[in-house]
Amino acid sequence: MSTRLLRRTALLITGMTLITGCGARIAPDPGSGGAANAADFPITVTNCGRPRTFHEPPQRVVTNDIGITELMFALGLQDRMAGYVLSDGQRRGVESSPFRERFEQVPHLAEEINKEVVRAANADTVFAGWKYGFSETERFTPRRLDRAGIDSYVLTESCRSGSGEKRGIMPPLQALHTDLRNLGRIFGVPERAEELISRYERTVAEAHASVPQGRPRPEVFLYDSGTSQPVTSGNGGAASQIIAKAGGHNIFADLDDSWTGVSWEAVVRADPDVILINDYGAGKTVQDKIDFLTSYPPLQRVDAVRERRFFALPYAALVEGPRNPSAVRTFTDYLWHRSK
């Protein structure tokens, strides 16, 4: 592969790339206008293909996962939250968040979500996702919450496609816009939601327009975790569309799922030009992951490993959330606009 694209001086990113700026603009506080009008209720939105009716705007929401929590903050809805649930690793990810101050203002309830945490917070609604808190094995599902008199909203990126537990029912950035519009209606701030969507669309469009035309697209492997079996993103994950909008091609874009396990043999066959690393901010560091990739014998023939083409983005930028647009811009700059 010595004649392939991206013959360039490798850029080794060994720390967390900060995703801030216009792709994650912070909305004004709810007190600035746009409060929900009780006369507008009940309202019904479509969530994971099913109608979901809210008889009044939620007042005590519990969120699970950093990207989901940042969606509430982006809409300026922190005063409607009873608290959020983040693992220790995700709490470290708050350091790179454009919403750091709002994380400090809202209670951190626990590291793992369950019915007891929700009840203790006196929550009226839970905003989570399948494998982002909701799980049959943990007996924590929207249906069980409904039986307990607690509303729920499911992150659209995590919606199940109908094929077992596979997730993904629409392009991930469309899922982001869908959730913003739904949340805007549920909380009575539709104008605020539309303003964010317009801004995010503009950020993505400007980045995508800067991709050179007529040149081969870099093949990209998203490395999330795993040593015996790697975890990556299929076409249902935000990471896959971030790669595509940045002018790259996800080597597992043909997988109809979001986050899923694959084989190292498949990675070697695809021979990616670049490896995009998911930085969780805790546990294995980006450097730990690079050290593994560069020392694992089967990968020594892979072009990205030979040439040390690694790039890292925070977890919160690679799952559905308000950091997605600026992640597109940042990864576009790496693929096409840095010094070669």
From TrEMBL:
<comment type="similarity">
    <text>Belongs to the bacterial solute-binding protein 8 family.</text>
</comment>
<dbReference type="Pfam" id="PF01497">
    <property type="entry name" value="Peripla_BP_2"/>
</dbReference>
<feature type="domain" description="Fe/B12 periplasmic-binding">
    <location>
        <begin position="60"/>
        <end position="340"/>
    </location>
</feature>
<dbReference type="InterPro" id="IPR050902">
    <property type="entry name" value="ABC_Transporter_SBP"/>
</dbReference>
<dbReference type="InterPro" id="IPR002491">
    <property type="entry name" value="ABC_transptr_periplasmic_BD"/>
</dbReference>
<protein>
    <submittedName>
        <fullName>Iron complex transport system substrate-binding protein</fullName>
    </submittedName>
</protein>
